[in-house]
Amino acid sequence: MRRVFDFHGGIHPAENKQQSLTRGIRQAGVPEQLTLPLSQHIGAPAQPVVAVGEQVLKGQLIAEARGHVSVPLHAPSSGVVAAIAERPIPHPSGYSAKCIVIDCDGRDQWAPLHGVADYRDHEPTQLLERIRAAGIAGLGGAGFPTAIKLAGKPGASIRTLIINGTECEPYITADDILMRERAGDILAGIAILRHILHPEQVLIGVEDNKPEAIAALRSAAADAEPGLEVIAFPTKYPSGGEKQLIEILTGLQVPSGGLPADIGIVCQNIGTVVAVRDAIVDGRPLISRITTVTGEAVAAPQNFEVLLGTPMQYLLDLAGFQPEHCLRLIMGGPMMGFTLASAAVPVVKTTNCILAPSASELPPPPPAQACIRCGLCAQACPASLLPQQLFWFAQGKEVEKLEQHNLFDCIECGACSWVCPSHIPLVQYYRASKAEILQQRHDHEKAEQARLRFEARQARIVREEQEREAMRAARKAAAEQRARQAAAKGSEDDPVQAAIERAKAKKAAQQSGDAATPEQQAAAQLDALRQRLEKSEQRLAEGRAAGEQEKILVALEATVQRLREKIAAAEAAAPQPETH
Amino acid sequence: MPLLRISSPHAHGSTSTASIMRQVLLATLPGILVLTHFFGFGTLVNIAWACVVGLACEALALALRRRPLGFYLRDYSALVTATLLGIALPPGSPWWLIAVGMASAILLAKHLYGGLGYNLFNPAMVGYVVLLISFPVQMTAWTPPRGLGEVPGLWQALQACFLPAWYDGVTMATPLDVLRQNDGLLLQDLWQQTPQFGRWAGLGWEWANLAFLAGGLWLLYRRVFSWHAPLSMLASLALCAALFYDGGSSASGGSPLFHLLSGATMFGAFFIVTDPVTSAVSVRGRMMFGALVGLLVYLIRVWGSYPDAVAFAVLIMNFAAPFIDHYTQPRTYGHRKPRGET
Ligand code: SF4
Ligand code: SF4
């Protein structure tokens, strides 16, 4: 047996998974209308490529990826585009966002699909492009674009591919049922990922509370290539967190602020792997997913294969929803899921569960009491944080302390809140603090940018002024030059006059002793300055022409400017050595 | 359909502060019964009266601070403080002594610092030490245990408490006292000549300690506390005793077993050192906290000027808890270095 590791903390909430496992996966069918948010993934929202009133086929591209971190969107069923407008979406804040609304025609007619006969004939980059084109984002939770995750960092080689079949949240069974019913598809998907990544080992991690899933995977894996293992490990929440699963299976920790790829690991969720298979083998884009509908407020909890965009109300009704028993509706599990403002929002790529608990099942939390520093939260925290200290600092809005105590390493798993005997909603405080700090950073960055812009503008104004000044000075210098030449010419023209001048100068010098007269000194100084200025100007011009660094040019400009000022001052102070 | 909108997690474990406090109260029962058996009803009267004063002080403080009375009174924390102080005081203490102790504990040590969770020092121990310093005579007036004298009944105990002048209780030195005062006698002889000693430690005391140990083990079994602080305190106390135990000369401080079963050792280890509010929070921190309490208990018992040292040791370490916390922060997932070192 392979060694499995443990991670710090963790809790054992009631699993409540059996309810939704008594039935197999059921097709949810085609609702009258589908609402597809343009952003069902992390990154830039997709860009619509259809117009209102346009007829679309099932699987047809309706919005394309925009930018690097983005994925396209496809019509989950055939019909007519009814609207491209704001609609309420499933989001913790209850936002509305731009959606493509399709009135289904009920025929569910496919666009032509093009799978590949044998993925081994294709380059990894080609396969990645297909995965991206199929609109696949992680189906586990965060919805990170899968192709990007698989492409990884250039130069970083992946030694271990981890398939996450953990599903540690109570109530959710979408992955469990997929492993039971479609283990073959999962293995086929893994084979494709292996072809893309060439990892040394593939580890499928499953908690030991899913014996059927483990058995199904093991028997399907029997004739897979070597280097693949199905690993069962003790049930504990939150083993399904990517970082925790990595630690369980490999004993390694992902460095703070880093990615699994930094230690040669890529994780993929079970559902994502099946979507990859469908995209490559069948050419089928991601238009449906498995979603668990459960909780005491539905009569028949079960898993559905549901088209993306299906209203949750439609799905709840299929499961026998009894709204009178339900106080809150949760997308996701009870530990990390968020409450929905209404059941009208659609199923999206990350909807792994709709939880409709009865009031007695998940009662509203009792009022919070004082923290008694019992330390239970610190014992439960999988990130080895000190939740009670974070809570303390969050209350006092001590931003620096919060960051020092690694607030941003909190994965918001909720284990601390779950154990807290004083019922303090700890995670809520952390979320709020994180949001506040991010906002502050954002504001700070904006202010900083504004400052830089302002300074650049000031510098430009000064520079332009200097350039104008320089041109004026140059013109003046040229004029003086001409005048001097004329004067010199004049004195040469008249040798007598020149001789008188020389004699006068000599006499004046003698009168003031050995030292030169102040006028002469000033004149000499001025000459020296002028020479330096000329040199500097020349150097500056050369620098500009050679495209030297901004810094150097600025320094040179400053020198020129300073010299000019000195000359001007000297000219003003000293009696004019020459009369024109 | 208006739906509730709240932040995750939506499920909650079954522990609550009140249930923790209730379990602590329950766990003190064996110890209280043994104390009552050996020293009479004085302990029960202590506790009952301390509870009355404690709740009154708590209610007063809450009213002054304009906090909802019912909500906070139901957390049982005042009752826990009262029970702990009641146990620690000599049986049959006068009513005013208990009242002063409880008022110091609740008003001074707890609410002046902001109430439950904000107090720096263990309230029961603050109450105890205030009394010990102010009224040393009353505080060392332990009645002789069953077997050495008459054990007061309920009526006598009530009289002792509320009509102190009418009751002339017999008092005697506790075994820890006797041992500390001893010079000239080998421990073995001391043991034989002094009626206060029992089989392993003091008569009655050893059984009380075992009863508190039982209650403490039950709390550990119920996972109300972790084992780290109590175990490290007992271990360090036993280790110190073992290091300085010379086999029983007149200068010896007593054997490890004697120290483990004497005075407030077990009571302190499981009911005082484990007080979450005033101890360190991390696992390493708690072990350090407990070990230092054990060390201090031994130092004060053997070389200090007070016979029992648990209260002082705990208060001193309460003072140090924030520092311990600062230097024992765990290493966060994915970080190389523990915090506090950057
Ligand atoms: S679990 Fe709750 S009461 Fe206990 S230390 Fe943490 S925040 Fe405080
Ligand atoms: S929510 Fe954050 S602080 Fe709380 S247990 Fe999870 S990781 Fe730790």
UniProtKB/TrEMBL annotation, chain A:
<keyword id="KW-0175">Coiled coil</keyword>
<feature type="coiled-coil region">
    <location>
        <begin position="447"/>
        <end position="483"/>
    </location>
</feature>
<keyword id="KW-0408">Iron</keyword>
<feature type="binding site">
    <location>
        <position position="374"/>
    </location>
    <ligand>
        <name>[4Fe-4S] cluster 1</name>
    </ligand>
</feature>
<feature type="domain" description="4Fe-4S ferredoxin-type">
    <location>
        <begin position="362"/>
        <end position="391"/>
    </location>
</feature>
<keyword id="KW-0813">Transport</keyword>
<dbReference type="Pfam" id="PF10531">
    <property type="entry name" value="SLBB"/>
</dbReference>
<dbReference type="InterPro" id="IPR011538">
    <property type="entry name" value="Nuo51_FMN-bd"/>
</dbReference>
<dbReference type="Pfam" id="PF01512">
    <property type="entry name" value="Complex1_51K"/>
</dbReference>
<dbReference type="InterPro" id="IPR010208">
    <property type="entry name" value="Ion_transpt_RnfC/RsxC"/>
</dbReference>
<keyword id="KW-0472">Membrane</keyword>
<feature type="domain" description="4Fe-4S ferredoxin-type">
    <location>
        <begin position="401"/>
        <end position="430"/>
    </location>
</feature>
<feature type="region of interest" description="Disordered">
    <location>
        <begin position="505"/>
        <end position="524"/>
    </location>
</feature>
<feature type="binding site">
    <location>
        <position position="377"/>
    </location>
    <ligand>
        <name>[4Fe-4S] cluster 1</name>
    </ligand>
</feature>
<comment type="function">
    <text>Part of a membrane-bound complex that couples electron transfer with translocation of ions across the membrane.</text>
</comment>
<comment type="similarity">
    <text>Belongs to the 4Fe4S bacterial-type ferredoxin family. RnfC subfamily.</text>
</comment>
<dbReference type="InterPro" id="IPR026902">
    <property type="entry name" value="RnfC_N"/>
</dbReference>
<dbReference type="InterPro" id="IPR037225">
    <property type="entry name" value="Nuo51_FMN-bd_sf"/>
</dbReference>
<keyword id="KW-0411">Iron-sulfur</keyword>
<keyword id="KW-0479">Metal-binding</keyword>
<feature type="binding site">
    <location>
        <position position="413"/>
    </location>
    <ligand>
        <name>[4Fe-4S] cluster 2</name>
    </ligand>
</feature>
<keyword id="KW-1003">Cell membrane</keyword>
UniProtKB/TrEMBL annotation, chain B:
<keyword id="KW-0997">Cell inner membrane</keyword>
<keyword id="KW-0472">Membrane</keyword>
<protein>
    <recommendedName>
        <fullName>Ion-translocating oxidoreductase complex subunit D</fullName>
        <ecNumber>7.-.-.-</ecNumber>
    </recommendedName>
</protein>
<keyword id="KW-1133">Transmembrane helix</keyword>
<keyword id="KW-0597">Phosphoprotein</keyword>
<feature type="transmembrane region" description="Helical">
    <location>
        <begin position="257"/>
        <end position="274"/>
    </location>
</feature>
<comment type="subunit">
    <text>The complex is composed of six subunits: RnfA, RnfB, RnfC, RnfD, RnfE and RnfG.</text>
</comment>
<keyword id="KW-0285">Flavoprotein</keyword>
<feature type="modified residue" description="FMN phosphoryl threonine">
    <location>
        <position position="174"/>
    </location>
</feature>
<feature type="transmembrane region" description="Helical">
    <location>
        <begin position="227"/>
        <end position="245"/>
    </location>
</feature>
<keyword id="KW-1003">Cell membrane</keyword>
<dbReference type="GO" id="GO:0005886">
    <property type="term" value="C:plasma membrane"/>
</dbReference>
<comment type="function">
    <text>Part of a membrane-bound complex that couples electron transfer with translocation of ions across the membrane.</text>
</comment>
<keyword id="KW-1278">Translocase</keyword>
<comment type="similarity">
    <text>Belongs to the NqrB/RnfD family.</text>
</comment>
<dbReference type="Pfam" id="PF03116">
    <property type="entry name" value="NQR2_RnfD_RnfE"/>
</dbReference>
<dbReference type="GO" id="GO:0022900">
    <property type="term" value="P:electron transport chain"/>
</dbReference>
<keyword id="KW-0288">FMN</keyword>
<feature type="transmembrane region" description="Helical">
    <location>
        <begin position="71"/>
        <end position="89"/>
    </location>
</feature>
<dbReference type="InterPro" id="IPR011303">
    <property type="entry name" value="RnfD_bac"/>
</dbReference>
<dbReference type="InterPro" id="IPR004338">
    <property type="entry name" value="NqrB/RnfD"/>
</dbReference>
<dbReference type="GO" id="GO:0055085">
    <property type="term" value="P:transmembrane transport"/>
</dbReference>
